[in-house]
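Weekly structure sync - notes
Attendees: PM, LS, DV (DV joined late)
Agenda: review two folding runs queued last week.

Item 1: First target. Sequence and structure tokens pasted below for the record.
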Amino acid sequence: MATIYVYMYPLLFSILVSFFFINSLAPVEPSILFSFEKFDTSLLKFDSKIGVYCDAMLDVEELSIKMTNAKKFSGGIVTYQQPIKIMEEKNPKRKGSFRTHFSFSMSPEKNEFGIMFVMSLLKGLPNALTRDFIGVKINIRHDDTQLFGNSDAANHVGLYASTPPWAKFANAADANLVLDSGERLQLWLDYEAISKRVEVRVAQWGKKRPVAPSLWLSVNLSKMFNTQDVFLTLASITGNSTQVCKLYSWSFELTT
């Protein structure tokens, strides 16, 4: 019997090594942190995962969040209440890639503030913009004809990063979109950790995710955020306009 155990130990060791080696090569399964296909009265609960602040309020009939009122300098903020980590010390296979998707509408009026998504080391606005962050803003500007060279360029999508300071802009009219039509639209923001690339796509509600991004930016978010707590915020403000912005759905997942 002793001779049998002598031969079994090396065999067992080889099996275990092979198992852990193969397991280390296995792809990381996507992890959906949250997915709200609609917003209902569960938002009103004390332990709700979504926080609604300032002028933002639940629209029970439309199952949406009305982020601004039809008046000047109205502002609303929606946050995911819990901090997240795009990387984990205990899970080295998690590289920091992620995707967020939300659907929204903006009433027909030019508004240079529009609606903005921000991922930052600090919670809420304007605090989130004082530390490392990545953000995307959808708005209607008066002066984009100088930026893009045509009158349709008022449909403005901007991608921003704090480290290094970067800003890129795209014209939603190139994708046959009118951002302030009042119709429901959707936006995807993807980060691929291996290529260190953030991509933004915008489409009408019900359409498939476009293959080509509306705009992209090279930035190392895995290094920027590492294993620190990160906060997710959506915000809108009317400024000098009376534009009403609505939020219909929001999801976030870690992809690799």
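Item 2: Second target, run right after the first with the same settings.
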Amino acid sequence: MSLGLPPTPAASWTGVARSESALVVPAASAPPRVPFLGFQQVGNMSEWQKKTPLEWLTYMNKEVTVLAAEKHQYQGWVLTVDPVSANILLAHPLENGKMSISAVLGHAVQDVEIVAEAGDEMKEKLAHLFMPEERQRYSQEEVERKKTSLKDWLETNHIPVKEQGESQTLCVAGVLTIDPPYRAEDCHSSNEIILSRIQGLIQGYLARQQCQL
């Protein structure tokens, strides 16, 4: 079940530097999942782990300082907080313009202090950090136009649709999501019947758009 938090990307990493409270890796062009390698929580839940997903969401796109176990301290921009483990994924800008990624394990977090809020430029960098190159061909304005156009068309055809949190994902009837750039293949649902029907509708919608050009 989606809680409005960005997904953690999936793949394998090499050259991971480990500590008991965090894993730090350099970000590639499409950074994969940071492996948490079986760390276990011991004892009672921390105050950080007791927060709700909506509370964690308020830390998104914020620069924070994280105080962890054994007096470890980490600073970076919050990419996501895992809703199950409360692990924090941080992005830290490097001098060469790239980003390093660090994962602070939820059970080790003792305090999180917000340092700054991301401006438009930083928000765009963070949003594109895990985005496939194909999606990056579209500007923010193009993505917004495509989203608004499809959303309006679905509503005109009496299909319930809404935007999912602060992301650019559209949610149809609570059972299907459509990611940018909003093509049939960008639809995702566990309900194969609804998935097939919405994909067919979007293919027809895009075909009509092409005919009008």
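Discussion on item 2: The CA atoms of residues 1 and 140 lie 27 Å apart.
Action: LS to circulate a short write-up before next sync.
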